[in-house]
Inverse folding.
């Protein structure tokens, strides 16, 4: 388990520029929001001395859709498809998080079968999400007109296999709306586990190719080793979670430390690295793909029999009410701890609903790690943090 | 026939051939990249998508020609033209077949290298005149990269010059006739020099892993950020023509140019050129990009010393080696 540590306050990374070099003419580069490598609409104001980043001011909010407010206006039953679009690379975990918060408020125990299926979904989603990250990271490193795009399209090809699996269950390839309060909406079809194992075999057989294009490639190593070092203490202070935190040497994974779904019946081997640089983050994510493949393999054959949903199907959304109270549920998504904090007032709408996205906290590391890096490194560091602007801005 | 008229005719033929080859090369690359990425590449326009370059050209011609208000008007318009001219100019001295070269220059190789060195100017002009920060950064990177890689390029090209005792490309190829290719013998000089030449050429023509001035994941599109339509197409064309001509040059310098059995010389030159071209694209679609400082450190720490050693070795070989 994680022990509580006291942390000393750090120097403000927002360096006063006139202290840096009063005579220097710094170049202010508006990096984004319309830039191919900002992973959506993210803007950084880079103050450059030549090619060296001296200071960075990140701006978020270009993709703000008032999701939290929307969630307060919609009834509980209507919220799930909305939060699908938050982390649009891992929609499964989004809807799991929000429904788990409602279940915690209602005190419903989710049937074991539903919890197993949720675990399988979460792990498959992790593979898909990390594959997409690997592809876009390669794009950041190698450009859309080069080796990067080759790796990108290969990763996309493998991700398709997982989307096909989700489509078999839910009918949707991306925004599933398959989790409900108390369980799952769609049961897995007959013969699905064979398909899952076939897809995992394909992905596993192709993983060595990706490793040879990344971790065994000198250019990849040169570009990522020692770049964007984030130490564990700072990561904890900033609230960074997930693979980035584990790459900084903090052994923390909610799947093992605060088990949800069916993780209490599983042994999750948490991947950690100590260097805290982009290479460590890449290694952690690649090992998590392997670990997720192993977990899904061990789960998919033994899905327990039983009911899929503890609650009755919601026929009238406005009549579905949650008693007054508050709950926070944090689960480990591919990007880290996705927290949902709900205050219910006894009606069919939440009084307040707050989503804690892991990507926002990951981005908060930028002002600390970027200064001193070049523009090229800035792109790589941003890519290694794997931000999804949909959940950052909500 | 009037000498000047003949030269003009040949120039028209060569320029058009290079342009036609370039469009074909673009098709080839797109197909090649598609297959590498488990895609099909262009299939819609014409048989096997062969007319895709034509469609692309038409598309680019229809685009609005935008010039930023703050851009330097003259230089902004001039840069793409200069770029294409420089890239095509180098084609003038490539020996196509025994006794056939658009221009027979005693210092042909020097001419090519000089033209190659000038190629960086249009790129920097484009970066500077666009009045765009991304373009400016790209232009700065282009200058650093091209000037650095000029050195190993010259050193690598010096090896065949020393070995053959000539700066005339036709003469260099003639001395390699009947299989006496420089990459084959003396291989310990020819092969490394060939490798350095190829690497430096990759850097000169801004190909991955050295496409740092363009670096579209960092600098949007580098120097060409503000260019649209045919002006952009000219840059694009210049880049491909540059790569193609560089491949032809490498073939002429180290792989015996038009030399080969049975088929006529031109076929052999084209074959070697396209094999090298294919190699460049193979590299391009499988590698990632270096960072600017890493690129320069490779150049100055490895390529330049190796080039100097090779030139010294070539001198020693000519002075004391076995006489052919």
């Amino acid at each position: 388990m994680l022990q509580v540590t006291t942390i000393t306050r750090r120097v403000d990374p927002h360096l006063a520029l006139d202290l840096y070099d009063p005579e220097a003419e710094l170049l202010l580069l508006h990096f984004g929001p319309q830039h191919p490598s900002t992973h959506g609409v993210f803007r950084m104001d880079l103050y450059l001395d030549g090619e060296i980043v001296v200071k960075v001011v990140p701006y978020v909010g270009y993709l703000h859709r008032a999701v939290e407010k929307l969630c307060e206006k919609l009834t509980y039953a209507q919220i799930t498809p909305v939060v699908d679009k938050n982390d649009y690379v891992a929609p499964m975990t989004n809807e799991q998080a929000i429904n788990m918060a409602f279940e915690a408020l209602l005190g419903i125990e989710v049937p074991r079968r539903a919890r197993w299926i949720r675990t399988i979904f979460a792990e498959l989603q992790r593979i898909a999400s990390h594959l997409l990250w690997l592809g876009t990271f390669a794009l950041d490193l190698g450009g859309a007109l080069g080796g990067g795009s080759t790796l990108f399209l290969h990763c996309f090809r493998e991700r398709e296999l997982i989307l096909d699996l989700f489509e078999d269950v839910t009918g949707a390839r991306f925004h599933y709306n398959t989790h409900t309060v108390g369980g799952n909406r769609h049961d897995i079809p007959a013969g699905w586990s064979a398909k899952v194992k076939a897809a995992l075999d394909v992905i596993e057989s192709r993983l060595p190719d990706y490793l040879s294009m990344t971790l065994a490639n000198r250019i990849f190593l040169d570009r990522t080793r020692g770049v964007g070092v984030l130490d564990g203490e700072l990561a904890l202070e900033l609230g960074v979670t997930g693979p980035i935190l584990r790459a900084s040497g903090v052994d923390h994974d909610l799947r093992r430390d605060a088990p949800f779904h069916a993780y209490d019946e599983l042994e999750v081997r948490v991947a950690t690295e100590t260097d805290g640089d982009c290479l460590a983050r890449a290694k952690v994510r690649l090992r998590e793909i392997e670990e997720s493949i192993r977990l899904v393999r061990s789960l998919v054959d033994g899905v327990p029999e039983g009911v899929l949903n503890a609650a009755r199907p919601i026929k009238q959304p406005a009549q579905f009410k949650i008693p007054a109270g508050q709950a926070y549920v944090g689960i480990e998504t591919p990007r880290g701890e996705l927290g949902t904090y709900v205050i219910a007032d006894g009606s069919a709408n939440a009084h307040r609903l707050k989503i804690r996205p892991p990507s926002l906290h990951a981005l908060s590391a930028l002002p600390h790690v970027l200064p001193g890096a070049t523009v090229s490194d800035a792109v790589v560091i941003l890519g290694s943090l794997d931000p999804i602007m949909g959940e950052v801005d909500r | 026939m009037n000498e000047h008229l003949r030269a003009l005719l040949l120039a028209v033929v060569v320029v058009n051939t290079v342009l036609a080859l370039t469009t074909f090369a673009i098709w080839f690359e797109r197909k090649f990249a598609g297959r590498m990425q488990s895609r099909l590449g262009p299939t819609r326009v014409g048989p096997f998508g062969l007319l895709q370059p034509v469609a692309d050209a038409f598309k680019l011609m229809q685009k609005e020609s935008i010039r930023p208000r703050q851009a330097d008007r003259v230089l902004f318009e001039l840069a793409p033209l200069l770029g294409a001219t420089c890239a095509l100019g180098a084609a003038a001295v490539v020996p196509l077949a025994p006794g056939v070269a658009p221009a027979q220059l005693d210092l042909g190789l020097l001419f090519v290298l000089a033209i190659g060195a000038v190629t960086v100017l249009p790129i920097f002009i484009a970066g500077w005149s666009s009045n765009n920060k991304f373009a400016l950064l790209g232009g700065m990177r282009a200058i650093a990269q091209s000037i650095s890689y000029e050195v190993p390029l010259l050193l690598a090209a010096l090896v065949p010059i020393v070995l053959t005792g000539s700066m005339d490309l036709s003469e260099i190829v003639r001395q390699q006739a009947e299989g006496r290719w420089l990459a084959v013998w003396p291989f310990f000089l020819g092969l490394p020099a060939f490798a350095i030449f190829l690497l430096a050429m990759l850097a000169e023509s801004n190909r991955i892993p050295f496409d740092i001035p363009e670096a579209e994941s960092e600098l949007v599109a580098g120097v060409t950020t503000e260019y649209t339509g045919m002006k952009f197409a000219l840059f694009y064309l210049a880049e491909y023509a540059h790569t193609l001509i560089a491949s032809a040059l490498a073939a002429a310098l180290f792989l015996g140019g038009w030399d080969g059995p049975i088929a006529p010389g031109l076929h052999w030159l084209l074959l070697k050129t396209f094999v090298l071209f294919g190699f460049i694209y193979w590299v391009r679609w499988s590698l990632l990009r270096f960072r600017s400082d890493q690129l320069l450190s490779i150049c100055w720490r490895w390529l330049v010393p190796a080039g100097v050693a090779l030139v010294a070795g070539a001198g020693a070989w000519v002075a004391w080696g076995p006489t052919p």
